[in-house]
Amino acid sequence: MRPYSKKHNLSNDQRQWGILFFYPKDITPRRSIEACNNRSNFSIITVMNTQLLGINTDDEESHVPFVNK
């Protein structure tokens, strides 16, 4: 299964913090700003034993151009 289509159950991660990252569309200015901020802080997020989960309502096919880019 591709990482961007993985189904996730938050109840499986009760021993770990999580950040839910909601975004409207791939390859948009707002998504880019938020993603860059998350990337810049990823080492801190990782050290704090925290997962970063991106959530979006688009179907799997819509993410293919973004993943390929």
End-to-end Cα distance, whole Å, is: 19 Å
Are there runs of 5+ residues with pLDDT below 50, and where? none
The H/E string reads EHHEH
For the largest beta-sheet, the strand count, sense and barrel status come to: 2 strands, parallel
Percent of residues in β-strands: 15-25%
Give a short overview.
The chain is an alpha+beta fold and 69 residues long. It contains three helices and two strands, in the order E-H-H-E-H.
Task: Describe the fold and architecture.
- The chain is α+β, with helices and mostly antiparallel strands.
- The chain has one domain.
- Helices cover 39% and strands 17% of the residues.
- The chain has helices at 29-40, 42-47, 60-68; strands spanning 17-22, 50-55.
- A two-stranded parallel ribbon has the order 1-2.
- The mean pLDDT is 77.
Protein topology:
Layout: E1 17-22, H1 29-40, H2 42-47, E2 50-55, H3 60-68
Parallel strand pairs: 1-2
